[in-house]
Specification:
Chain lengths: ~230, ~575
Amino acid sequence: MIEMLGLPAASSFADDIDMVFSVIFWIVFFWFLLAEGVFFYLIFRFRKKEGVRAQYITGELKSEKRWITIPHNLILVFDVIIVIAAVKVWYTVKQDLPDAPDKQIVRIVAQQWAWTFVHPGPDGQLDTPDDIAKINELHVQVDRLHHFQLESKDVVHSFSVPVFRLKQDAIPGRVITGWFTPTKTGEYDIQCTEICGVGHALMPARIFIETADQHAAWVASNSSVSVASATVR
Amino acid sequence: MATAPVHHETHDDHGHARAGFIRHYFFSTDHKMIAMQYMFTGMAMALIGGFFAYAFRMQLAFPGMDVPGFGVVSANEYNHLITNHGAIMIFWVAMPVLIAAFGNYLIPLMIGCDDMVFPKLNRLSYQIFLLSALILIASFFVPGGGFAGAWTMYPPLSTKPEFGLTPLGATLFVVAVGVEFVAFLLGGINFVTTAMNSRAPGMRMYDIPMVVWMIVIASILFMGSVGPLVAGAVMLIFDQNFGTAFFDPTRGGDPVLWQHLFWFFGHPEVYVVLLPAVGIVAEIITVFSRKKLFAYRTVLYTAFGTGVLSFMVWAHHQFIAGIDPRMANIFTITTLLISIPVAEMLFVYIATLFGGSITFTTPMLWALSFIATFLIGGVTGIFLGASGADIYLHDTYFVLAHFHYTFFPIAIIGTFAGITFWFPKMFGRMMNERLGKIHFWGTVIAFNCIFIPLFVVGVAGEHRRIYDFTNFPELARPALRNLDEFATISLLVMLAFQPIFLFNLFYSMFRGPKAPKNPWNSNTLEWSADSPPPHGNWPELPRVYRGPYEYSVPGREQDYWPQNAPN
């Protein structure tokens, strides 16, 4: 449903989040139509007519209250379905941290008003001299598990990749770890979604999702220049 | 504050002769005058808040344009406008009008007493409120400009001038919010005490009109939730000015602490303004469908249930803010649970219409549109309360459209419903129905045209508080830009309909046809007083014999049965 609005699903959990969205959409759409339908029918049916007097209904009798309690219990059932669907996805995306031998770790540093993405160099390790630090460019490899370490240098920012359906606030003083596995190659937006001052609209970054070969080539072409920039941190 | 009841002197309990103009309009202790002060101050603030919305929506739809009446909107001005639009509309429009104005006006009149139990405290409450509004307006003109860090004031952006760039504006903003809460604390004490202690003889708990109950519950919620926020505001002011580090991570503080303090207040606050509007709607739909309120006690219990639950849902604003992810599961459950009492309230109102004899007066149209539109606000909240979906939707225009679909029905539709319904009592004259209906349709249709497109752009990934989307290739697509333009044009249409209301209001105040005591054939006590009621409300306080919603009782000739009629 979200993809229909021109936003591809490019992470392993994007389809799950879209599914939760669709489940909720159809449930609430059903209730919305039902409630509005009954509402407009009653307004029309019981509009004032000459000589017809309104009925005296207290709504305190059990037979009358049924009209409230049955929908009420049904809503409870639907709420349970939604909670299960939501918590399941939440667990996958935020609570769980899957591990894999070939996982890639990237460091994401937010500041007013730029993103610094620190990628491991040819040795595959962060915090070594060959790290590749890039401003506003995140390079990742498709179908490979990535862990990110999210930091902020000044105020609260929020790291959002709409095609991943992923969002996480960056809190100064903390390192927040999360994960994603890209599933589609291409170049997409990264947004800052928490107001961070006058340049809040000037923090657009791009994510480049590359095949293994492309990514290796990118690492190789950057490994020499990055030795100096990595020590800046 | 142009007109008001002028025959105070007829009531000798209050012992002052004809007061001077200043004393009458600015230092009155009459609950009705204080209500009018709150209402007109709130309406003036709404004009400012509406103008701000106009300016930043124009920038969003037509980036870089010279907005007529404002000029080019810079990035900092944009942030300033959205920050103060939010703060004004919630703290200086919804709160004073829904709770303070209607609470002050209706509670004594509907429970049958002559004034609030603490009239001077009441006057002080308004004066402090006015001071807070003046502080806020003053903050727009200090060096560095007004605060621009969003109405949620998240530190460190709000605490450090080098991040927020508004050293004085930020402090004044927090001070204004804090001072305002003192005003509403005084008001809340008054509302609860008056409703509990000063009811007319014969009025039992279940004979209290629903709107009075709702304002009382809202006041209790407000008083219960505001403490942490006032404490937080003081800490924020200390962080800003006196070198403390409550929220400064570089010196051992924690910025997320503020978010907890803020939202612990912020979420009950939604229900603080919701409940009075729900109460107003209950009064109106019963009168104009000539029906007894369906399951009075159920409505009351759901309001209590909503109130209690509203204290347990705050962290759904912080799902992705770095809280322990396990916590999100608990708050997802409580948030979805709160959908049950709120849905039940709407079901009760829909059920009340069954078997009625519905007339479509202007106040009834507003009340019905409240039910129809608030439903959209309610169901879209489910997406955001469900943690899994919120990962994506958080801080997008979907959130914005959702809470405008709750706050607009509450603060704007609820207020128009209340004003058009009680206008005959307030000013002793009738409003023009034709103008009222033109204004109604123009406002409600345009409102839906503003925010339905914003749901769509939100799901497509547009995020909030961005003054120009052209830097984002995925969001600069013409399809999305056109929807934003459509929303802005709808806003212009909606604003264009508002002078009709203002004209109707002020023209009817002076020239409208004289209103009888009880123009709508309503049961509640305020309609047994003169229109407008004099100082002291009744020459002799009324006695209550039955509940407020005895409409169309079988065997009676009249289809209404006033609470104060002995038989």
